[in-house]
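Q: Could you fold this chain for me?
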Amino acid sequence: MKRYLILLAVLLAASACRQAQDTRYFAPAVEFGSAQYAVTPGQGGLDIDLHLSRPASQALHVGLNIDSSLEEGLQYQVSSRTVDIAVGQQDASVHVDLVDDEIWVESAWIELILKPGERYTLDPGKSVARVDVSKTIEIPVFRLNAPEAPVVTNPFLAETLHFQLTAERVTTKDLDVVLDFDGLEFGKDYRIAGSETAGFTYPAGARSHVFSVEILKKDQSGYDRQATLAVVPQKGLYTVDPDGSSVPVHLSDPVVPLNALWRTPALNGGTGYRWNQAIKTPEGEWDGNTTVDMGRSAEGSNYVQNQRSLWDHSSFSCPATASPSHPFRLTDLCPKIRYPSEVAILDYGANESYRSFFPCDSLLRFVADKPDTPNQGSLAIPSPRRLQAYIGDRAAWGNTWKDDANKTGGDMAASTDPAIQGQVTVTLEKLEGTYDLDERVLYVTAWFSSEDAHLMEDVDFTKWAISKDDGLWKVEYKIWPR
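A: Sure. Below is the predicted structure, expressed as structure tokens.
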């Protein structure tokens, strides 16, 4: 019994002296082997080293964030965004591959940033590795510039836009530069001045070159398109600075809000609204206010047309013109065929002043300066306009026009009345002007021609500043709503 107690005491003593097992986990610190690397694309790539402060006692998965001035997947790629570290491993690496043929900048960078994890620790000062990429570019690097950006133009004006292409170094040979205009069709929507293709020749020895893009006329009220003009890199010939490869271009022809001009309706319930028209004098003043009835050519259109408004005359029981409507005061510019001339302008008018030239659709076109300021802009016509008047025996017409109006329903073209002796045609060859709907005023310069001698015959040129300009009669107007 005594021997048994002694043995038990020895065992208990031995147990008391043995050290307890340490089961705690000490997370290793992970850091990059270096904070700075340098490489050239021709080397293909490089390995970025990772180091653990102690061998991994269990498998680790270290995540990476990546930032770069280059395009991942095209100009470079990283072997993995997670570095796997096996048990017992203390060093690892991640491979960064560079695509030499896609890198066309002389200086770029890539940064790898270690993500925090639960099974390892990070030192913020050692958790970022920067790779500086340098390359000697032997071919030109172009940069596209515009006088202002974004470029804004109204396609109705068919303006020519000018751009500049610059190079970091002088070129040794002529280069064919390729352009892309973001879905606009070459030859239909635009052209390059002096070129039959969507590009141009950049001359040898130049550090910069100006080229011109011709926007082709598009007569579409409400048209609005955001486009981008870009230079397309050509491998082995030239490349483009990513920060200067394109220029935004806004093509816009907004619908002009013409309601400010529709103030006083035509007389006797006629169609359209009345405008006053004054002609410029030699002293620079404005003379007269002969009216014209005008209205929008169609809903949503930027064209306006003059009106010939008919109504059922209560006294004569026949169609008659509802109000005087003299586009561009042409009756004033043809005094030899105005009342009371024996041969005069004829119309279904109860009053001599109601007899005028017949209306012309799309007589004026409003062209907004900019998309955000449609209340100001210019006035134009895309092609000449013809205005006609019937002429004949004034006295005879005075006796028959009422019966003739009932026969034709007001359509002079259907008349066979012998009092009508013919027509006078005046062509509005071109038109320029400006409008300001906030001020409710239009300033118009019009150029007229006519094969008939009646235009400007016996006009008092001391009263109005009418002149001949390249064989055309030039007249300046101020027009405003009545």
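A (continued): The chain has three helices and 33 strands.
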